[in-house]
Each structure stands twice: as structure tokens, then as C-alpha cells.
Amino acid sequence: QVQLVESGGGLVQPGGSLRLSCAASGSIFSIYDMAWYRQPPGKQREFVATISRGGSLNYGDSVKGRFIISRDNAKNAVYLQMNSLKPEDTAVYYCNMGGLGGSRRSSFEVWGQGTLVTVSS
């Protein structure tokens, strides 16, 4: 069973920066896509960014030019560097990973528990 553990959330002032981390553990053979999503208060979950195993990147329009997603395949980890933060970035941020794991190398998709980011003065 694969599990994700997130860290790095907290309170930050507008214009500030924050870095989120998410590490996978368990029986993992390979992780394909790693992604970040967020859910603002009272709203639906939305896409933030994704990175493929080969390094291809994709960002949501609202974070382009401010957020940077990266990954460390050796550590089965994904990161989200958030710069120039705005109050509207306030949300619970979730990491998501898909790949192959277990003794039979079955496909999996897992979500982290979420970490709260609050942007406020």
C-alpha cells in the first residue's frame, strides 16, 4: 500500500513564499505523474500543477509564473515552490501520485492528507 505524507503548509503574508513537500512510502515500483491540487474554502478542488516522470510540466492558469513544481525520483517526492502568494491562493493543498506498486506491480493512484496554506496579512 502506498501512502503520501505532505508537509510545509502554514500562514504566510501576501507576496511571500512557501514550499510544500510530499513523499511517498510503501511498496513502489515506479511513479509516473506527480501533481498538486488545491481546494479553497467553500469551493471545489482544482488543478494546480503536474510533472511527469520525464519532467514534462503543466500548470493551472492561476499559478503560472508564480509556482514551480519539481520532483525527486530517488526519494519518491514532489515539491511545490509557491512564490508571490496571494490571498486567493488560500486553500488545502493535496498531492497526488500515480504509478505501479505492490508485489504484482499493480497500478495505483493515491492522495495526500492535505496541508493548509493561508495567505493573509
Output the keywords:
121 residues, mainly beta, 59% strand
Reconstruct the topology from this structure.
Elements: E1 3-7, E2 10-12, E3 18-25, E4 28-39, E5 46-51, E6 57-59, E7 67-72, E8 77-82, E9 91-101, E10 106-111, E11 115-119
Parallel strand pairs: 2-11
Antiparallel strand pairs: 1-3, 3-8, 4-5, 4-9, 5-6, 7-8, 9-10, 9-11
Radius of gyration: 14 Å
**Helix vs. strand class:** mainly beta
Helix content range of the residues, please? under 10%
Number of helices: 0
**Number of separate strands:** 11
- Quote the beta fraction: over 45%
H and E order: EEEEEEEEEEE
The average pLDDT is 96
How would you characterize the largest beta sheet? 7 strands, mixed
Instruction: Write down the overall geometry.
Output: elongated
pLDDT < 50 stretches: none
Separation, N- and C-terminal Cα atoms: 40 Å
Q: TL;DR of this structure?
A:
By secondary structure, this protein is mainly beta. Helices cover 0% and strands 59% of the residues.
Description:
The chain is mostly beta strands and 121 residues long. It contains no helices and 11 strands. The strands form 2 sheets. Strands 2, 4, 5, 6, 9, 10 and 11 form a 7-stranded mixed beta sheet that branches. A 4-stranded antiparallel beta sheet has the order 1-3-8-7, with no helix packed on it. The protein is elongated and about 50 Å long. The model has no long low-confidence stretch (mean pLDDT 96).
